[in-house]
Amino acid sequence: xxxxxxxxxxxxxxxxxxxxxxxxxxxxxxxxxxxxxxxxxxxxxxxxxxxxxxxxxxxxxxxxxxxxxxxxxxxxxxxxxxxxxxxxxxxxxxxxxxxxxxxxxxxxxxxxxxxxxxxxxxxxxxxxxxxxxxxxxxxxxxxxxxxxxxxxxxxxxxxxxxxxxxxxxxxxxxxxxxxxxxxxxxxxxxxxxxxxxxxxxxxxxxxxxxxxxxxxxxxxxxxxxxxxxxxxxxxxxxxxxxxxxxxxxxxxxxxxxxxxxxxxxxxxxxxxxxxxxxxxxxxxxxxxxxxxxxxxxxxxx
Length: 301
Hints:
By secondary structure, the protein is an alpha+beta fold. The protein has helices at about 1-20, 110-120, 140-150, 160-175, 180-185, 190-205, 215-220, 225-235, 240-255, 260-270, 275-285, 290-300; strands at about 25-30, 35-40, 45-50, 55-60, 60-65, 70-75, 75-80, 85-95, 100-105, 135.
């Protein structure tokens, strides 16, 4: 069985190399929910939002930091996010001879619900919400399904029919495992995680506006203490910390892509005090806004 898994891993790695044209970076595919990743060297820590998706690794190693929690995953492992989460990520093992090779598959709550309804997977009662990020190992049936999804890239006429079916199979394989509850909870009506999704979406869409916890609790249809508890269970941070991450990431993007002063960027993402913005920016990114953007532009030159 180990030989079979090794063959599958090498086969999928070769498919990623082929369809990424051995070019570093992120590569969209003819399957809208599927993206390929290749990197032939270690990368610097990158701040961003890990969207609802599963990232499967077939060569190399990567680390993701969620709040103060470190997640490390490597070949034959995957990391899954059941909700959108602000993280810091870094490829930590890659070389020209053995590049980091991975693929990301996005999914929707509707697909999770379909899998539960069609497969009759037993659901679980959950007193506490599960963390929205987890790392798992790929067993042979899961890896085989991923291989078949990748093979569709060579048969585009089959994608409309088969890609949705194989995607559901991949979700089914994961939900059969010990982390199935982390995916199940996002569609379980009445559960804490299910209601927290609305709160997360509200913060994402309105991060530049003042955050009123009472309003957020009303959106999630729960008490303020319950909101804080479930929000931290899922995201590893408080609503205010979540908003702060989104604001600072948005400000960094503005400073990097537009001719914007730090004070203007601060106001545009919701800060009233430029000095507070500068302090929090420096705390998160390790340098002042001016120094950080100068460094990033030098790296990208």
